């Protein structure tokens, strides 16, 4: 059976998250139902990583084995037709080797966290951003955030429920930029702990408000204790941006 | 009573349009209800212009007379608190002279029309863009669109229901640009006819697809007949961007 790589955009708002769960509709279940409608098979759609309820994706990646040798463009259009009732869109389909695995072949993941930073609440971007009314100093957030770049024990920014074997990760890039009323946090790493990006965003917001200095952020990281890490930013500002695989290294 | 100028963002999706109507909730009615909740008065909120059901605003302007001399920032926050149930946000409040009128003082209005131009449907921008799957040539749309700039009889792009006294208007600027998967039409004029922007967007889409040449667009304009004008673009791609008033001319 040919294996297909799917690049997927979704609005996380109506879903319980990426992963199949008994308590509501997940993005994975919606995709597997679309595959069943298209190919009349019960196939597992393997994602590159989970997202929490309310977290969005611009470029989640998954793979699935299909019993049909259709051209990738036809697979994309057929799955999108079956997904019409859901805010999920298959942006790209590629046929890949059978040793490709969306999760285990992934070399790097990137996320963006969007903060709407103005006095008035979001209307058009409700459910798409974290609304922070107090003025944020994006430059201070960026500068302090460089403390988090590199090889660290990220226990301070790790959810209690995290299933990773080790809290030690390498954060390859962190950038905070302002575009008008919006402050954006971009992060890139091989992998992230559960809630790591939202927890880092919550701490950096304290820096942006002037409630924390860079030294406070350093002390929080060094504490290796979630209780020292500040608030968890809400899910609706987070976007799973992209995944990089070895074949794209060139 | 002091007069306040409101700059308003809204998601047009859940509303019957800007103007109060018997058949459903309008943006105007939601604002007037918020004013009543804040000041216990039945005040009319005068908009700078109507928008159709489904059309969004980033910078609609309105004025209202309030029986309280509150500072503008307090008026903004209080109205936003009363609007919490609706996707409407007061971005700015300014106290203005009593001869200011949101509609009659307006010197210029600008709109953006957003087209998502890719094979896969929108997920995060559903209800926020016109999805066009066929490749659009934004350069050809821009070049042909310059035919519409200037002083013309725009009957071809005027809705049957339009209440303007004359179909002759001056279009001051039209620009079509591509930003990645998105094609954006920007227009600026003292005022527009009913459906004029959506009808121009529909015709320019035909140019972008290669179904119409610039000569076809010229012939459509010259026909002064709506039947010659091509399709009306759907409301959800249209954004009322801003209004310019004389005091800001400097």
From TrEMBL, chains A, B:
| GO biological process terms on file | tRNA pseudouridine synthesis
Q: Does the keyword tRNA processing apply?
A: yes
Q: Which Gene3D superfamilies match?
A: Pseudouridine synthase I, catalytic domain, C-terminal subdomain (3.30.70.660), Pseudouridine synthase I, catalytic domain, N-terminal subdomain (3.30.70.580)
Q: Could you tell me which residue ranges the Pseudouridine synthase I TruA alpha/beta domain spans?
A: 9-104, 146-246
Name the catalysed reactions.
Answer: uridine(38/39/40) in tRNA = pseudouridine(38/39/40) in tRNA
The GO molecular function terms of this record are: RNA binding; tRNA pseudouridine(38-40) synthase activity
Return the broad EC class: isomerase
Return the InterPro entries for the record.
Answer: PsdUridine_synth_cat_dom_sf, PsdUridine_synth_TruA, PsdUridine_synth_TruA_a/b_dom, PsdUridine_synth_TruA_C, TruA/RsuA/RluB/E/F_N
Q: What is its EC number?
A: 5.4.99.12
Active site location = 52
Keyword terms of this UniProt record = Isomerase, tRNA processing
Annotated function: Formation of pseudouridine at positions 38, 39 and 40 in the anticodon stem and loop of transfer RNAs.
* Xref: HAMAP family: TruA (MF_00171)
Subunit structure of this chain's protein: Homodimer.
Q: Which PANTHER family match?
A: PSEUDOURIDYLATE SYNTHASE, TRNA PSEUDOURIDINE SYNTHASE-LIKE 1
The family note in this entry says: Belongs to the tRNA pseudouridine synthase TruA family.
The protein here is known as tRNA pseudouridine synthase A
Species of provenance? Caenispirillum salinarum AK4
Recorded name of the encoding gene: truA
């Amino acid at each position: 059976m040919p294996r297909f790589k799917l690049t997927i955009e979704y609005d996380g708002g109506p879903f319980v998250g990426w992963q199949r769960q008994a308590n509501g509709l997940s993005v994975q279940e919606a995709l597997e139902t679309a595959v069943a409608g298209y190919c009349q098979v019960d196939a597992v759609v393997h994602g590159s990583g989970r997202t929490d309820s309310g977290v969005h994706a611009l470029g989640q990646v998954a793979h699935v084995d299909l019993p049909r040798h259709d051209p990738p463009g036809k697979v994309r259009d057929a799955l999108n037709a079956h997904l019409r009732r859901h805010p999920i869109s298959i942006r790209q389909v590629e046929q890949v080797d059978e040793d490709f695995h969306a999760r285990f072949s992934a070399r790097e993941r990137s996320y963006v966290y969007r903060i709407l930073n103005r006095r008035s609440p979001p209307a058009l971007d409700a459910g798409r951003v974290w609304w922070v009314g107090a003025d944020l100093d994006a430059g201070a957030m960026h500068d302090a955030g460089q403390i988090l770049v590199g090889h660290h024990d990220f226990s301070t920014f790790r959810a209690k429920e995290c299933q990773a074997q080790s809290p030690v990760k390498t954060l390859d890039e962190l950038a905070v930029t302002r575009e008008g009323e919006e402050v954006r946090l971009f992060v890139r790493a091989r992998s992230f702990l559960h809630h790591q990006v939202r927890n880092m965003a919550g701490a950096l917001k304290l820096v942006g408000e002037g409630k924390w200095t860079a030294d406070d952020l350093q002390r929080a990281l060094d504490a290796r204790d979630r209780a020292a890490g500040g608030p968890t930013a809400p899910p609706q500002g987070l976007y799973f941006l992209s995944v990089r695989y070895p074949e794209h290294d060139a």
